[in-house]
Automatic annotation (TrEMBL):
Residues 24-46 are annotated as: Disordered. Residues 70-154 form the Calcineurin-like phosphoesterase domain. GO terms for molecular function: hydrolase activity. PANTHER family: CALCINEURIN-LIKE METALLO-PHOSPHOESTERASE SUPERFAMILY PROTEIN. It comes from Anthurium amnicola. This is Tryptophan biosynthesis protein TrpCF. Pfam families: Metallophos.
């Protein structure tokens, strides 16, 4: 539980509750996290986090997986995001990793840019509302889907793997821009950017992204819809 203050009186909330409009009192407030350290471009990408390196196992000599990893999941914001207060809440939770499941708004580039700039280890998958108006990439200018992808860079894990070595964790992204179900959504976008033309090709792309995961890592599949990673 966490001690908070409302109207001058302390009260308690369960860990993991998102806070907005509350004055939070923490005995050990989190220090600012260092910016993610990106390795040279390529797929997959490894990102160092602020978590301490795990001690080596006495039995195998290999780094042991951290006993506990705190992950915050944020989904379907749909423009309802306070850039200052919600960022404070995420820092207060002291998550080792934040996973964003998409639908930030109807191609809300400004919000996605601010999410991308959060000084937190994170991975993102874009949802169907993030490609709400754009059915194919523009040949003349950067459309709002392209701008979102450029803002996120390697943090967007659609058909891609992002490794977090200090957490012994790998994130593999599912089908970007998905609206669920057994049909492809935004086929032209997927074909142009990822070379994916059907659901079988989508499944292969996800499988290929998971291949070569570092030994000892746990795997998290990040998708906009469920229950399958195809969604």
């Amino acid at each position: 539980e966490t001690s908070c203050v409302k109207g001058g009186k302390p009260f308690f909330i369960k860990s993991g509750t998102m806070l907005r409009g509350w004055r939070v009192r923490a005995s050990n407030p989190p220090s600012p996290l260092p910016p993610p350290s990106f390795h040279p471009a390529g797929s997959p990408v490894s990102i160092a986090t602020s978590a301490p390196a795990p001690a080596a196992s006495k039995l195998t000599g290999r780094p042991a997986m951290p006993r506990c990893v705190r992950i915050a999941v944020v989904g379907d914001v749909h423009d309802d995001w306070d850039l200052e207060e919600d960022a404070k809440a995420l820092h207060f939770l002291q998550a080792d990793l934040v996973l964003f499941t998409g639908d930030f708004g109807n191609e809300n580039v400004h919000l996605v840019k601010n999410i991308a700039n959060l000084n937190l280890p994170k991975a993102v998958i874009l949802g169907n509302h993030d490609s709400w108006y754009t059915s194919q990439f523009s040949q003349k200018k950067a459309d709002r889907v392209q701008l979102q992808l450029e803002c996120l860079g390697e943090q967007h894990v659609g058909y891609h793997r992002l490794d977090f070595p200090l957490l012994k964790l790998s994130i593999v992204g599912g089908h970007p821009f998905s609206c669920g179900g057994n049909r492809m959504f935004r086929e032209r976008l997927l074909s142009a950017r990822y070379g994916v033309h059907d659901m079988d090709g989508s499944a292969r792309k996800i499988f290929e992204a998971a291949l070569g995961m570092p030994e000892g890592h746990s795997l998290v599949l990040l998708a906009h819809n469920g229950p399958t990673v195809q969604d």
